[in-house]
């Protein structure tokens, strides 16, 4: 009897292990993996990298993307704006509608990577990785275009223009009405100094920061340096404003809540013995919540108003509100994490900290819930650096995670 019990236990364990092994194989060896066009993704990335175009000027890039989408088959092409493209894949059965977004624009930065496929355009380069985003989503589109019969619902491959240039391309596409049927938005950004090919799940709630700023001109009264009593020194006024701005984070913002006020420009005068007429300042401001965003603006305005008044100066303030913070949806985040693990294995998925950069992907929340992910591309300099580059081995994992996320969201 004991031998029979032991035999049954062994058989049960073997059956369980086989079932688990079968489940693991199906998670990492899905039938569609053979359709991932890894070499094409690299080729597409090189072409886009060599031919960068600035925000709102992505004419050749968008045409290149549209032509490739047409060549895949089963994909309808929509051009919601002059330089954006949406590829629409309708599955064989009705279901939900999901969008995955990639941005296409480059930066006004002279490339210094020395790559054999470096930018051909002077002072313009893909120093943020949007060439990789576009190439990966093309790979996702090509993979899924061969799976029409297995898809329940509709997929929007959203190739967006002008992420880098405020007010951003997302708002234009939203206002076109082309995305009104979308029920969920996913996006992915390459980031250095995370392991190659690893998918980072950004936090629920604020996954990035807002991007605001100001341009300030302080109008003083010029005078000779030896007779300061006859002038109003805008350098002194500006210095006091800069120092006072530092108290906003340390004394007004709730401790523990992320916020940054950085004055990155202070220009005034050109001679050591002359008090100038004016000083020019500019700042970058990052917050994660609407109340704090308003608090910081109110404090900046009050500090500028009162410090200049105290010194007898006047000012001109241009306060610039740009992209809001991305708000990651809890349910979509959970789905994306499960899908990434299914596609790549749990060792390739991690919980990423909030991005301190901003993104106009945040605007898509006006239509439907959003989830934004990051893809590790190895050690290197930060995005926007002239020497920014990435390990292309990461890109195939990006495509796999995108495909699996789309399939799982649609319930295939």
From TrEMBL:
InterPro entries (UniProt xref): Amidohydrolase, Bact_exopeptidase_dim_dom, Peptidase_M20, Peptidase_M20_dimer
Pfam family, one: M20_dimer
Recorded coiled-coil stretches: none
GO molecular function: metal ion binding; N-acetyldiaminopimelate deacetylase activity
Domain Peptidase M20 dimerisation: 212-309
Cofactor(s) listed in the protein's UniProt record: Mn(2+)
Taxonomy, superkingdom: Bacteria
GO BP term, pick one: diaminopimelate biosynthetic process
Signal peptide (UniProt feature, chain positions): 1-19
Cofactor note: The Mn(2+) ion enhances activity.
Record keywords: Hydrolase, Manganese, Metal-binding, Signal
Positions annotated to bind Mn(2+): 128, 130, 164, 189, 384
Protein name per Swiss-Prot or TrEMBL: Amidohydrolase
Provenance organism: Flavobacterium macacae
């Amino acid at each position: 009897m004991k031998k029979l019990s032991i035999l049954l236990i062994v058989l049960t364990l073997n059956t369980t292990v086989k079932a688990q092994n079968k489940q693991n194989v199906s998670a990492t060896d899905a039938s569609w993996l053979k359709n991932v066009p890894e070499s094409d993704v690299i080729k597409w990335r090189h072409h886009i990298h060599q031919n960068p175009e600035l925000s709102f000027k992505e004419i050749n890039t968008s045409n290149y993307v549209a032509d490739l989408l047409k060549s895949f088959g089963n994909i309808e092409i929509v051009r919601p704006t002059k330089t954006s493209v949406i590829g629409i894949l309708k599955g064989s059965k009705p279901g939900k509608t999901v969008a995955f977004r990639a941005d296409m624009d480059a930066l006004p930065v002279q490339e210094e990577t020395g790559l054999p496929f470096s930018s051909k355009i002077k002072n313009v380069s893909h120093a943020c990785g949007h060439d990789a985003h576009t190439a990966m989503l093309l790979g996702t589109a090509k993979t899924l275009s061969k799976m029409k019969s297995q898809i329940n619902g509709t997929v929007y491959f959203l190739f967006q223009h002008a992420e880098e240039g405020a007010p951003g391309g997302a708002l234009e596409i939203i206002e076109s009405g082309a995305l009104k049927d979308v029920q969920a938005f996913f996006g992915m950004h390459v980031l250095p100094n995370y392991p190659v090919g690893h998918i980072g799940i950004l936090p629920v709630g604020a996954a990035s920061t807002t991007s605001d700023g100001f341009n300030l001109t302080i109008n003083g009264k010029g005078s000779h340096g030896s007779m300061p009593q006859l002038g109003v020194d805008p350098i002194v006024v500006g210095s006091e404003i800069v120092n006072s701005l530092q108290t906003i984070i340390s004394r007004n913002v709730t401790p523990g809540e992320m916020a940054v006020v950085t004055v990155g420009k202070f220009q005034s005068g050109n001679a050591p013995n002359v008090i100038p007429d004016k000083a020019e300042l500019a700042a970058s401001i990052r917050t994660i919540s609407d109340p704090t965003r308003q608090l910081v603006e109110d404090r900046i305005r009050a500090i500028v108003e009162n410090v200049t008044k105290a010194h007898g100066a006047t000012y001109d303030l241009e306060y610039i509100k740009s992209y809001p913070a991305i708000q990651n949806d809890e349910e979509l985040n959970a789905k994306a994490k499960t899908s990434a693990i299914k596609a790549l294995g749990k060792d390739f998925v991690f919980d990423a900290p909030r991005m301190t950069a901003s993104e106009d992907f945040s605007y898509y929340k006006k239509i439907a819930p959003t989830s934004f992910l990051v893809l590790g591309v190895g050690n290197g300099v930060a995005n926007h650096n002239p020497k920014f580059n990435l390990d292309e081995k990461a890109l195939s994992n990006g495509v796999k995670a995108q495909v699996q996320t789309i399939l799982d969201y649609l319930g295939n």
